[in-house]
Amino acid sequence: QAPLVESGGGVVQPGGSLRLSCAASGFTFSENVMTWVRQVPGKALEWVSSISSDGRIPAYADSVKGRFTISRDNAKNTLYLQMNSLKFDDTAVYHCARGYKLAYDVRGQGTQVTVSS
């Protein structure tokens, strides 16, 4: 099984919400900082959010601050990203990753988020 598997993507209208999940396996999830990044074809990989191993300290890119919330459940080995007030520019493939910001060593295959009217 892949160490990180994302789910929860889909098509949503502007202003809508989605909740992404990332199931982790094969390593001690609770000991690792975790991150969400996103990728648009033809553009650079963009860091979205990171969270400390205990879940107490989140960090957000300015582009999502106030709209997205990162969280984790260490008992379930799962990372989350609650996305509200979605914009067209949020359309991307979202990946969870082990590490901080773009300094990660493992990344999932991603889940597509499309914001469209």
How would you characterize this protein structure?
With 117 residues, the chain is mostly beta strands. It has no helices and eleven strands. Strands 2, 4, 5, 6, 9, 10 and 11 form a seven-stranded mixed beta sheet that branches. The protein has a four-stranded antiparallel beta sheet with strand order 1-3-8-7, with no helix packed on it. The termini are far apart. 32% of the residues are buried.
Quick recap:
The protein is mostly beta strands and 117 residues long.
Order of helices and strands: EEEEEEEEEEE
Radius of gyration: 13 Å
Report the biggest beta sheet as strand number plus sense, adding barrel if it closes: 7 strands, mixed
Question: Which regions are unreliable across 5 or more consecutive residues at pLDDT < 50?
Answer: none
Strand content: over 45%
3D shape: globular
The total of helices stands at 0
Terminus-to-terminus distance:
36 Å
Q: SS-based structural class? A: mainly beta
Provide mean pLDDT, rounded.
Answer: 97
Quaternary structure annotation: single chain
Q: How is the secondary structure organized here?
A:
Blueprint: E1 4-7, E2 10-12, E3 18-24, E4 34-39, E5 46-51, E6 58-60, E7 68-73, E8 78-83, E9 92-100, E10 103-107, E11 111-115
Parallel strand pairs: 2-11
Antiparallel strand pairs: 1-3, 3-8, 4-5, 4-9, 5-6, 7-8, 9-10, 9-11
